[in-house]
Amino acid sequence: MARYTGPVCRVCRRVGEKLFLKGERCLTPKCAFERRQNPPGEHGASRRRRVSEHGLQLREKKRARAIYGVLERQFRKYFDAAAKKKGVTGTYLLQLLERRLDNVVFRLGFADSRAQARQIVNHRHIRVNERRVDVPSYHVKAGDIISWRERSKESTYYKTLVEDLQRRPLPKWLTLDTQAVTGAVIGMPEPSDMDLKIEERMIVEFYAR
Fold first, then answer.
1. Which of 28, 52, 94, 115 is 20 to 30 A off residue 19, Cα-Cα?
2. Are 69 and 3 in contact (CB under 8 A)?
3. Which residues belong to CATH 1.10.1050.10 in the chain?
4. Reported pTM
5. CA separation for the pair 12, 190 (Å, rounded)
6. CATH class, range 8-97+195-207
7. 101-187 architecture in CATH?
8. What's the pLDDT tens digit per position in 138-184?
């Protein structure tokens, strides 16, 4: 599946908010957003235009896409799938994004960022219910167990991970066994479980135009 490969710090500057797309680096003085918070481009520092309602909706959609590392075509598919469900479309959309395997690997603390989690999944280090899954967009469901491939446990990365595993708070819909280094899905994510709050209502209104 295609993914954005450009400079991610420009994305944070574009939305005017630190999205922690580089993991631990975003918490250090090396973070580019700390040095240059103006929008990217030749006239970014001097541009002070009023943003329309449509512009705000577009910005929120781009922000959500950047957080989860999803391009427009796949993001639109998620929205269309959520729109077909009975209930609140925005909530279903966020659930689809949160249930991506790369996001779950990140949430469990197996990676410092979603981009790194995507790479871990692509390289076949992760198993779901003892079956190898190398598709980052794979959707987990309640009852799934996420674990590491046995051979991957011999890597230096894994050994370092075990020493400092639970570095971030877990959302309520996941559990983590630090001894076995496995995670379990015990429910469905809710908007309150998101680390970076997303205005899903604005995204729905953008596509409803």
1. 52
2. yes
3. 8-97+195-207
4. 0.80
5. 24
6. mainly alpha
7. Roll (3.10)
8. 999 999 999 999 999 999 999 999 887 866 789 999 999 999 999 99
